[in-house]
User: Fold these one by one.
Assistant:
Number 1:
Amino acid sequence: MTGSGGSAPLVELDGLTVRLGGRTVLDAVTARLDGRAVGLLGPNGAGKTTLIRTLLGFHRPAAGKAAVLGLPVGSGAALARRIGYMPEHEAFIAGMTGVRLVRMLAELSGLDRREALERAHEALVWAGLGEARYRTVETYSAGMRQLLKLAQAVVHRPQLLILDEPTNALDPPARRRMLELVEHLRDTEGVRVLLSSHMLPDVERLCDQVMILREGRPAAVLDLAAERREARGLWVVEVSGDEAAFATAAAAVGFGVARSGRRLRVTAAGGPGPAELFAAADRTGTAVVRLEARRDSLRDIYLEAMGELP
Amino acid sequence: MRRRSLPPSLVVARYAVARMLAGRRFRQAYILALAPPTVALAILYVLSSAPLIEQLGIRGPAAGDAALAVFRALFRWQAFAAFVLAALGGPEIVSPDLVDGGLPLLLARPLGRWGYVRGKVGGVMALLAPVTWGSGLLVWLLAAGLLSDGWWRGHLAVAGAILGGHILWTAELALLVLATSAWVRNRSAAQGLMLGILMVLTSVGAISAQVLHNELLTLVSPPMAVAALVAPALGSTRVPAGLGPAACLASATLVAICLAVLMARLRAAEVVR
């Protein structure tokens, strides 16, 4: 369905600053994102959508540079033909049938009329809209419109698929279907993906690299694949006695310790493990009441980056 | 063999034409708009027929004057028909792109805002061409064949006025209807706004010209500005002579305002202040 993604970095940002309406939305962002599928995470207003729109050339940077697939942003048709974009909000042209809309957009991406028509049918059937393709798009349900946005984004076989909240407003089966379709594109067609989403499980499932934005700046850039390989240790510990002394003793032997509610959240990259935690408890005269091993989930990493874990 | 794809702005123009022609009322009006050239042709045929001229008592130079009067009337009717067609079809090709967020889908392709505007304006102008300068020039060519041998040589400027005047008028109409549609986004409101702008400008121009005794002020009205440009060639005495440069300036101002409105309103991403 789509073309090869190539080996250039997906996105390179060099001091990228974007100001909109007198407000700095992206503030000197520098990052190199070269994953096969990159997730953009962050709270509302963090700058995710602005970053995507800047990469598409919708916003002009106030300072700095950005490149997508090795091509500078603003390099016109050469870059636009390589990108498929699925916007966050409702996006259709009323009065057009699904196939006509997708065909027109394929033609705008440089396909000739016949090829555009063939690909439009192919993309709509692939997205599961085969039955509805001759209906005018305003009659589509919310889920169908999401699928239509995906079909138009892939109709010209882009190298990079930019998805802005693709599972918004979808019920669980439709969400599952959407994720499967994107996985298919990523794994079978070699399409690279830039995904902005509030749904951490979606990002965790689809992406191998994540950039977490906070107030227009990257709070963290994570290689999820490496994180998974390292299987970093994470334990939730509850102790009775002098908790502060226990925390200090654990930190002294290489643990990262943070408070999480009534409990302590203890992390370690290789090296120390539960035995060292019990030893620290012994040394400080505290007792480990509860010790629960957990994988360091994207949620934890996200909350840590947001400063919401004590 | 792989066929060549059209440039994006031509794709936009092609779909704009198809979209306008899909409207039943537009198609009906379009067919009606072909009536004036047909009537004009019939009148010119009568003027070229010696026995009929004799019966009507028209002689020599008077036939030529009558032909010129036919072209003046034809120009006015075609300009009016172009206005009606632009008002009917224009909002259909812009409002739907803006109301439901379709514009980002278009502008994420190798198509900039200028290309989008070029395509839409081109679509409107291409569709209006057969009912304005296309049929006008056809009538002129047939008149050249029907009337006396030297008629066409003496009236080349008429052909120029038909071509240039209608191209300018349809371009202004296309930009105006796109700008009003982009501004209000609602089809009916855009049609009303376009009509209102032309009526208000024409009224303001006429009244202020009378009150201030300055004919230049009539050029505030876009149709009057175009009329001022074609009047000398069409032998019209209704428009004061010598207003050509000012009419060019008035038309250029209208075009610039419409383009500024379009560039302000056609944005792939809204910025919330």
Number 2:
Amino acid sequence: MRSDKFLQWLMIAFLLAFFAYLFGPLLIMSVTAFNSSQFPRVAPFDCFSVEWFNVLIQDTDLMEGLRNSLIVGFGVVVLAVPIGLAGALMLSQVAPRLRAWYYTVVISPILIPGVVLGISTLVFWRMLSRSLGADFLYDGIFLTIVGQATFIAAYSMLVFLSRLQRFDAVQEEAALDLGATHVQTFRKVLLPFLKPAIGSAAVLAFLASFENYNTTVFTILSDKTLTTVLASKVRYGINPSISALAVIIVFLTLLGAVVFEIMQRREGARQKESARIARGEIKTRSKQRNIMTEPAMITLAVITALGLGSVYFAGTLGVEDCKQVAKAEKRALSQKRVKERQTLQMFRRAAPSKETGAGTATAPKVKAKGTEGYQSIFAPSTLEGMAGQENKQEEEKVEAKGTEGYGNIFAPQNLEDQVDSDKKTE
Amino acid sequence: MNPRAYFENFFQRNGRALGTFLLAVVSVWILILILAPQLFMVDFSFRHNLPPAEIGGAKDTYTLEHYKFMVYGSAQSQGSYNTVDLGVFLRTLLAALFVTMFDLAICYPVAYYLAQSASGGWGRLMVLSLIVPFWVNEILRAFAFRILFGTTGVMNNMLMAVGILDQPYDFIREDVALYAGLGYAFILLMIFPLYNAIESLDKNQIEAARDLGASWLRIHFRIVVPYAKPGISSGCTMVFMLTAGALAAPQILGGPSSLWFTQLVFQWFNQGQNWNRGSAYALVLLISTIVLVTIAMKIFKVRLGDIGK
């Protein structure tokens, strides 16, 4: 028995660690979105601010990407959901000998790496548009819709298949016996039954399209979607406006999850009611409220509005004052550093020049290691260039270095070039 | 059944309009979206990289040059092997295998708990909270790991505050961030197949084994794991294929000296401007992952039909 208790505790500890792994990174990223610091970080937390959300909205690249992502998502839903439906209906009607083959072929796009799908779509449609002389086929948005629909249709098919498993074919036969045409039966019997599945397949298709990168990066050509813009931004230097975007997406996802849960409960209540009617306990169904007037929905809306409002006020009021204070603190800190350095310098001057030479030789080593921008400031070479009281300049330098905590991936020069070119493009 | 009778039967069952619609849509999907591009890519990878004007001309012949390049390197270094690309290829497959094992190890207990112990509202909440992180963009998830594992990131600050480290550890150069991020990305695809498989296991079997005195470890290895084998192989297949084919996480989290095989493919398309060679590399990736998965399924005696359940 004692070992059982022990195992139980072990399980709880494991679950906690697992969910920490699941949510920790997202939580930390969300916190960095509200830090006024130039570099996404949790500590030191400068000022609580929503300025990065403004930066995000003013980013024209991201907004263009978002627009294209919405267009592509819409196109994929329109293309992939009917294909998935037809594919699912077809599965039961394929000759039994062919069924295994059919299933393997239509399920394969899920297992084929997205990169391969993107490449095959790209080279195939380029060939097609060249040999037909139809340039409009070789268009980033169109190719992306086609490439994504190839595998997203398979996702939708799986959604429809699981719903169809519960379909009673007798209903269809009854409709046909009563004189309905096939199209009528499809529209009046099968489609209403599949309605929930169509909804979830559409949502799934849109989300899968919206977050796809591997296929899109090849098929989008010179256009851009939200994910390709994001990827290039993240690869060349990062700032908290990307965290801000993440906060919005996490928030919308959570909101969606809660609304989904509320709708599930409603559905559950309805089914219980149906069961009671069937048992004869009650006669009629109580009138279903409009979903927007459901108490849970109203509570949700009020909490959301209050939360957003307070975050907005906390993030805009007093931010400037706080920043001034933070800046002053930083300046004081760097003045202290300069003073320390001056004493050090005087000490060095007194020492034989040999030592200075050795010190310079170690400087590149520190830089190459690139662990932290701050370290290179202490390198003697930096020191010499900084004779006197260039406080301000030095502080800026510290800031700039601070933003490249990842200096090891991209050499500092690269980053600076990138900043320059960013400025140029602006 | 001869094809004509089959089609007559098909149209009789669905009606002319609906039957045509179904047939047309499914054939567009299978022929134009799935098969034609794949087959064309195979053909394309065996051709020279030519400017548009020369395509279809005398120079447009079949060649093995792109595959040879991957194995032997450029013509100048003929004889010796292309160690860089082959190294990246092997490393990618091994790392993908490692990530798959890691995901299996951490997801199995959670799936078991969800399927056998969690009930009602608590279980639903857990499922929902598993899904939520999955809907956050792949790029943003990788970005989160960069913040977490950066030199001034939370992980380093925390470990230094506790005193485990005395100077920042470069998680990104050592690929810790990459493996953590890749493992994170496909957790859901491991948990749900496992969960589906374990859920249908009759609790009485576990009870019986316990009553007969089997140890906790023995119950899992003799009862739960054999029963859940289709789910395990299904989850492992998905995670392995997706990890080996991942592009975003290696681009964002990969260290400076380590490349992922998909990044080579990407380079041939973007910087290299040699689409034929890129296609050849992509095909090598596709075929080798499929072969590995098939071998693994043979070894563990799982049928293809069990996957995707």
Number 3:
Amino acid sequence: MFKVLKKIISVGSVTEDIPEDETFAELGKQVKTKLKKSFSGSIAIRAVDSGSCNGCELEIHALNNAFYDAERYGIHFVASPRHADILLVTGPVSKHMEEALRRVYQATPEPKWVIAMGECAINGGIFGENYATVGSVEKVIPVDLVIPGCPPTPTKLLQGILTLLNQHNKK
Amino acid sequence: MNKTLIANPWLNEVVEQLDRLAVEFTHSHQQFHTFNIANNDWSRCAEALNSIETRFSGLWADQQDNAMLVTALFVFEKHYFVATTRLTQPPFELLSLSSVYPAANRMERHMKDLLGVKPLDSPDIRRWTRHQAWKNNEFPLTKEFPVKRESQRITEGDSKYHFFQTQGSGVSEIPVGPIHAGIIEPGHYRFQIMGETVLNLEQRLGYTHKGIEKLAVGKSPDQLLKLAARISGDSAVTHAWAAAMAIEQASSIIIPNRASYLRAVLSERERIANHIGDIGGICNDVGFAFANSQCARLRELWQRTNLSLFGHRLLMDTLCIGGVTVDINEEQLAILYEELSAIDKDFSKLIDIIQDYPSLDDRLATTGYLPESTAKALGCLGYVGRASGQDTEVRRDAPYPPYDKYQVQQVLRNEGDVLCRLQIRVDEIRASFKLLSALLHGLAQGEIKTSTVNIKPASENIGIVSGWRGETLAFIRLDEFGNIARYFPRDASWLNWQALEALIDNNIVADFPVCNKSVNGSYSGVDL
């Protein structure tokens, strides 16, 4: 137990303001305020892999590590679409996931938004449109925001989520 | 048969066994020793090989003209060799290998779904990769089938698959997925339970099938590497290296010394990142959040270096045919050294804490036990195999440059539980730290890509590399223009997923996440 405490104290807090963009920390603050005002302080995301290579998922995981710590802005990843405000969809939508994606959208309560994350979700990426893939999330469910990248870095991902929040009010 | 074969004792033994069961074959030797087996003797060949404990490694089919060439890769006493059989006319049917090698089952079903080669007398011939995106008389990998179809038909969900059933008083069933808990790839799990205890688990994959094998056809070798890096995002270097190796060996391309070292550096970095992440994940699944935060911290730092030095956090697109696309200067080399020594220390302290936690042992020891005999029957690879007495390691047993200059030390255990698989990963990380340090020392000056890339048309070969999940294959055949005619990547998960179904028996449902994480198979890597 002492070892754990010692380690926690010696490492300290590594959570940092988002690098690369000076205005970003400011934006984060604004959105936190916005979340407080329009979203009761928090927003819930369900990540949906519709056939990705798992690269995007690794970066979504990274978004929750101590460096990025999306929770501090009130962004939570939830286990069920029924608890979600946002669906974060990755992958070119394999045909085998088409129906599941449609159903997960139906299961998400209104108001809801969809983010297409990564090149595949936006335009099929390297897989494109073929006998086994639909080729973009937009062809299956309405998309509110896209976040390009292969995969998008956690920074890009967070920026995207914050941009979306800034565009909308939950009514 | 050809009696003049044999100067090698191991080969001699293989031939003896084939003769003993009167298997009709011819032998040739290209990159691998190859046995051409008569159609009717295909499963008997497997029996003969299994009798001397030959390990099954992979199986695929290739449509050549109007024939189907079915190929299996085997390993006997650390020597790889190939068995093939040619089906000259439809119906393409072949006696199944799965009753001898259960590991072959999913690959046979995949082969049937994509190419129409039907396994006969198989214990399980249900469809595997095919759901509802194409019909049972259509075979996407055949030449007649178009890459893209014009039909705008919405693909329905796959509700007609016949799962195994368990009946009896008190037995109930939990269907989970394809979209299941957390941030994870899609797959379906069907639990039959009695109270909390799992009686049977059946897995259904194929949800992320993206037509990778079909898309590969017609691509140039360098384009293929981009695709290979995206078979499983956590194994970008592994699959790209396997594909590059197959093409380079088929075309007799020798990559520069520096390039091979850099590939190994990238590959070891991938291994370390994934193992560290998974150790955190395993601890997290039994509620030890501290370890997860710390491991995620180390992984993040590691990935940031990947980005700043190699241009990509997951190291995608760092390989090309003939070498690598990234180089490091002296200053960057110093950064790598410094980082390595820092992470080594940090990791050791962390592991001291993790291993000193009795409540963690309590949750992980005896959980998800995979007996040695099951691991052997399923041909488990990497850490899953090595925690249950299956000692496979390509870097040591069939070393390719630069690993041929180093002794890769791997620990073998047989406790077979989650704790053991975690410990094996710790051992692998430590071995990789040492190896990485040696690789950085050994990094010679020179080119990072060979100046002479002459792709040999109409050639074929199998690339075999060690990924972080274990032995990884890539079969590649080039057409007469030097483009890809057939690509089959065999991720280690093909052989490890079936272990998950076995090791969950008699555990409680609530321990499924930690058992799953301890295996961590790739969904995308097998759905293709």
Number 4:
Amino acid sequence: MMDDGQNLEFASHGSLQSEEAQQTEINILEAVMSGKMDFSTVKGQLESSDFYTEDHQKIFQAFENLLRKGEPIDILTVNNELKSVRRTNGWDWTQYVLSIQDYALPLGTKNLDHHIRKIKTFSLNRKLWKDAQKLTKAVENEDIDQMIKLIADISDFQIDNTRDEVVILADQKITPRTWLLEDAIPDCYPTIIYGAGGLGKSFLALNLAILTCIGGQKFLKKNLPPEPRNVLLVDYELEASEQARRAQQIAKGLNLKNVPSNLHYFEPKENLSKILPGLRRKIKSKEIGFIILDSLGASGTDGESVHDVVNLFTKLRDLGVATLILDHQSKTQMGERYDNKTPFGSVYKGNLARSVFQLSKNKDSKNNPVTLQLKHKKSNFGRLQDDLIFDMYFEGDRVLLTESTVKSDETKELEKVFEAIKELEDKGVKAIQKEITDVLKNEIGRDKVIKLLEDGKGKYWDLMPGNRTEKIYKTRNLENGYLSNQDSRFLKEDLKKYDVPDELLEDSPNLD
Amino acid sequence: MSNEKQKLLDITFDRLSEKYPSGLYEWLYTNKIEVYRKIFKLEDKINENFNSKGSVQDLKMILREYWIESMKAIINFKECGHINVSLDEARSERIDSLETGHVL
């Protein structure tokens, strides 16, 4: 796989796995030499014998020597350390060490541990394979002693492997989490935006893509990466000319003369699983920092197959860059609610993505602008975000996305519940669930009220114990600091809406 | 501190009085008694804070809510545009209730 003349001999138990093992090793060796990863972390988890090729084993041993001598580990010191060591094929080390940089894939810091685990797994598989071959021979030769010994060795391998995966949490380095879109799209992991067809998912994705290409931009007050990133649009839905037209509309909406030159387009001819190895090379060669896949449903992946979905998401995560996957959802059937729908197909899609949003049209939306809301359905890295609501304007040859002043449907419903509780409090009636559902019986269904009562707890109201099992809802009021609650958009908005004098605001200066 | 409290009260009442439409209290009393009670309670809280050692920040909080509730009532009243009973009749009934303490 390296083109400096070294032809590696793949083991007979599967050349693809061997190739993947070598690529993973190269990624880790490069991460250590470039300083992305502290070698002392790697050393605790891997040994030189875990590496597939002898050359990689020797490079790893060079790392160990340098660490022992207290010297820095970089291309120069490693190359110097290897001078006294013979390469497997007798060739010079310099070219090989330099080419590691070229062949390594850019890994996010989050994924390094995953690659270490992969090397360990490959290593274990090779050892098991060798023992399995020996065991076959022992069976053929009816050598019972050898069979018993080998079976014991295989069991030991499994126990050892389990032990390797147990780490001391206190020793783990905590690195700051990075985001493509602050608190919404995590870096290095897959995020899904799903919704009914024709809502504007592709325009939204293009808008994010172009803002990311520019660098230092915000979307709905959320930060995008400060530096420009190259973006790759992997498009199974539209042709390049149509995407170019849409990108131009978005660019004009952002007051740009042209579509940024670092926005790349790729229209695959094969299904996603097949193109992923090639995609890795594209990511490397074009230095891609953000991938948009439009759409998963059209990519030829069997969305119903657990195996396909798990395999795909693992590979997407291994790409090491933020991936935004657009996906469709199944049509709403009679009696179903739109916001209860999940991405179409296997439940694993939602489970394996680290952040999941549902795109829907706001109930108060007009035809132009269309008011859309992104509802955060899942977040592995932090609390769910409030609904992101934006207006999409279609104005001739430009499309503009701006933050909307329309409240989310849920906020409006929470406000209704808040008013209902207030009304009961003012009447001197205990605001228990039954009373609240009674007040709202002509506006919001009982089940929905119960859900909203749970959602608004600690934000709009608190739950107080009543008689016996009775639970009383109490609106957050002046006594418990409701007005100063940072999370309370409800009253914050009121301050502006009702033109409250500046002198009365919490942070206004003293009047004396 | 009382000087600052006084200034806050003046700002609130002066600016609100510019916005109060005639007949608001009477309309609230006859049509929106819960809102009337709420505003009444808030006025009590304002007095309580002003006359005690309540902090300026607390007073600001109360005044903010008082302002918002009053503005909501004003908008509501203007949207409705009329009261169902004669203003004088409503006013005397409201004042009677204040004197006899029936409202709260």
